[in-house]
Design a protein that fits this description.
Blueprint (H helix, E strand, L loop, with lengths): L1 E2 L7 E5 L4 E5 L8 H9 L8 E6 L5 H9 L3 E7 L2 H13 L6 E5 L6 H6 L7 E6 L4 E2 L9 H7 E2 L3 H12 E12 L3 H8 L3 E10 L8 E8 L6 E2 L3 E2 L9 H9 L10
Parallel strand pairs: 4-5, 4-7, 5-6, 7-10, 8-9, 11-13, 11-14
Antiparallel strand pairs: 1-2, 2-3, 10-12, 11-12
Helix pairs in contact: 1-2, 6-7
Length: about 260
């Protein structure tokens, strides 16, 4: 892990055991474990190209982690904030992934003509992945940093707009993967229901004896199969050390168990 000189310059952070170097803001929203876990949950095709849309991609951490793990993945990083778009473009280039990853500046919910102007088509992605803002904008104090505020919080009703947009962008029979805070599970399932079926829920536990703090939800567009709750994934041992399974994901780019179910 390193940094370019100057307090106002982005930090240069290592992911996947140094297999990926990511520039990101020193203050405000910073990608970390959630982004890596999201990428590790996406099923990867072994012998055919898989087109993936990363919504709210930020500086591109999750989509780049997926592209590094899955050589068949072609990823579009979709982000609205100009400062993060610029860093995402630099991260794509500096990690040598420009042949399979591109950055698109756009807003969730864009109409079809606007998407076409950006080179995106509805129902054209094999998989859509998302790490939406976790916090309800109307329920707490807004972060003073505008970039952090926009990345961390949105009105509660916006989650349904994200679900609709994911459904518009995924192919019929295509998949979606979302990571969210555990307390939002009921709301997340409600906005996905009717658009996606075969919903799988993977709880992420900080420690074996602790309640889940994150959930990963995965589904198939148009499926009528029932939902399933998977065995949880434990991140830390009794101390602060990661479990061997978590280390394999975070350092070696191993897939999460949910990635084998679709």
């Amino acid at each position: 892990m390193g940094a370019r000189a100057g307090a106002d310059q982005p930090s240069d952070d290592a992911f996947l055991g140094g297999g990926l170097q990511v520039l990101q803001p020193r203050s405000g929203y910073r990608a970390g474990l959630d982004a890596v876990m999201l990428a590790a949950a996406v099923p990867a095709a072994e012998s055919k190209t898989m087109r993936v849309l990363d919504l709210g991609a930020g500086v591109g951490t999750a989509g780049l982690c997926l592209a590094r793990r899955a050589e068949t993945a072609e990823v579009a990083l979709f982000e609205r904030e100009p400062a993060l778009v610029r860093l995402a473009q630099e991260n794509v280039a500096r990690n040598g992934l420009a042949a399979r990853v591109r950055v698109v500046k756009g807003e969730v919910g864009l109409a079809a003509p606007a998407l076409q102007a950006l080179g995106l088509a509805e129902e054209s992605f094999d998989h859509v992945m998302a790490n939406p803002p976790f916090h309800d904008l109307d329920a707490g104090t807004i972060a003073p940093d505008p970039l952090k505020a926009g990345s961390h919080a949105m009105p509660e009703t916006e989650l349904a707009r994200w679900a609709r947009f994911m459904a518009r962008m995924a192919k019929p029979g295509g998949g979606i993967t979302v990571i969210h805070k555990a307390e939002a599970l009921i709301r997340l399932l409600a906005v996905l229901d009717g658009r996606f079926g075969a919903l799988l829920v993977l709880p992420l536990y900080p420690r074996a004896a602790a309640p889940a703090h994150r959930v990963i939800v995965q589904g198939i567009k148009g499926s009528r199969a029932p939902p399933a709750l998977l065995p949880g994934f434990v991140l830390h041992e009794a101390g602060d050390a990661f479990t061997p399974e978590a280390q394999a994901v975070l350092r070696d780019g191993a897939p999460l168990p949910i990635a084998r179910f679709l």
